[in-house]
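Regression report. Comparing outputs from two consecutive submissions.

Submission 1:
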Amino acid sequence: MKHLYLCRHGETAWTLSSQHTSTTDIELTERGAAQAKKLRTRMEKVPLDAVFTSPLRRARDTCQNPKARIDPNLVEWGYGDYEGLTTQEIQAKHPQWNLFQNGAPHGESVRDVRKRADAFLKRIRAYEGNVAVFSHGHFMRVLAARYLGLKVEKGQMFTLSVASLSILGSEHDHPAILLWNDTDHLV
């Protein structure tokens, strides 16, 4: 694979309120739809061998590529009992909680998410050209960490804004970040 383009979905009501959103299939806001359109326009210029999207509506609506294949491995980290809560609300009860270290009760563990990320990366290694992924913030942070050969916990070092574009590739045959969390195209 030449480059891996990571495209985070556009704004939702819960990204505005900082609520953890995994399986809740929430739609884009009007502004989020406009952000998605600008991101798609930017991605139209990129020659792609394959496009993959999370099955969740916010990612599919951001992608809107007829050639996109839905991959269940690309869903957001399963937040379990923490679905719909903000980090502040969670830490009021569990002050030391950190998603990248603890996972989520009745949701996914760090190991669960690592396995999904690794399975997806294995799937796309066969492509020679560029691959685009439309997915979610926490999951793509794990995906980036695993692409770079890092532990899942290192994903907490990478932030992703809504409708951001990031590019992973290599330099001198070593995995590298070529662009991270770019939002220059946003409205």
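Submission 2:
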Amino acid sequence: MELFYNDQIDNQTKVFKLEGKEHIHIKKVLRKKEGQIVKFTNGNSCCFSARIISILEKESNFEIISKTKFENPPFLHVAISLLKSQTRFEMFLEKAVEIGVSEITPLICERSQKKNMNVKRSKNILISAIKQSNKYFLPKLNEPQNFKNFVKKNKDENKLLATCEDYQKKNIIKAYDSKKNNLIMIGPEGDFSKSELENAKLADFQFVSLGKNRLRAETAGMMACAIFSMIK
């Protein structure tokens, strides 16, 4: 069964309507009929089964017949540099959602070749990814942040940084802790600068290795998510 997203639904909702693209998709692409059941999520780990009351020209109307609340997954926050290629960055967003991530912060680092992003487009990619992969939790996407400011204010319990530089590093599998809030930072093309690494070290970040192979930034981000998803 297809999954739809509607952030206006909550535990108090009994009936609601869809307009715009989602309505068109239900009416003209899926050709749903009155009385059929459609599955929705609000992105807060909830699944709602809704019966179609009516499909009109410009809107579809629904009534909720059941709801299920799931536990939130273990917390992983990935802070990753904006990349020169928007396509590669958007691939990371999509795959991170499919694999599992709680929060994403785009970073502006010294070696970042891009300084901004289309936040609205990126959020739509996250929404599309949870629908395609039938997930009920929508990760939080933050506005791009400067590396130095982010390192200073971050309060996550288990703070990790992946780097290719020759520092004393832990194996990422051993560094993750599924019982805590985990943050991992991934650098841009060319890795973090020496000064950024020193700032992170002073802010109590642990340096970790993702293995012997040198990875593209988006691949490193996806691998960080994949390894975390296997930690019990």
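Expected: both submissions complete independently.
Actual: both completed, but the second showed a warning that disappeared on reload.
Relevant detail on submission 2: The two ends are 29 Å apart (CA to CA).
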